[in-house]
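Entry 12.
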Amino acid sequence: MRKTIDGSARSGRRVVSVGPFAAALHETDDLIWLSYALPWPGAARERFSRQDLVELRRLFREAGRVLRFEFFEPLHPWLAALLAQNDFKLQAAQPLMLCGPDDLRPDRLRLRPADGEEVEVCDLSPDDSSDLIGQFMVVSKLCFNEPPYVTPQELQTTRENLLNGTYRSAYAKVRGVVAGVGSISPANDELVGIGTLAPFRRQGVACAVSSHLLASRFQAGSPLAWLSAGDEAAKLLYQKIGFRMVGMQLNYIDDSWDGRTRASVPRPL
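Predicted 3D structure (tokens):
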């Protein structure tokens, strides 16, 4: 959790300490998943006061962001009930999964789609063309139900993130087409944004991208990687390549949230 908080500070977010929480506010992107509050490591129920929530709501409102909490239930079992009592609702309960170097299954590193053609996995580089980086981003947006449009600012931000090591990203090609994408955050070893275009699903694409990114991090000396699986199908996929479930990651969001994935909180004048 400490690495997650530290990683947030190095990935375009402003981090503010409020009682037992760290507020991580993304400076340029209002996608709701990119801003959140996290409990500090070891945070205890006794440190909490209702004034903390008042201050967090103020911070997020002034930043034009939706207040959300993300936390690992095994580390903070007291937090879910407290949030539910203070006008927050459960947004997601996702399997929390871990994988170490000895867990990764080498036989899953090279997978082939149903027609027998090999899945070619490539690293995305900051030196790649804008066209290729744009393809990567469009595939990512399509996989997560975002409009498939990439602005020049988004393109520049992605290139900068690759250049400064905020993310290490990879893509899979099938028959010359970018079919799947994914990233890992070296700051906290979280596997994120694994997605496959619909025509290429169930062909080993997501496993190939995930395994490639994990193997690279483990070769660089990382002792552990983690993720929160989006659903049961994703959990089963990650188990195939060596992840094990250790609990749940819970996401709670302000009751006033209207369901949109982009912040609808107006900044104060």
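Annotation: The chain has two domains: 2-94+249-254, 101-223. Residues 205-219 form the longest helix (15 residues).
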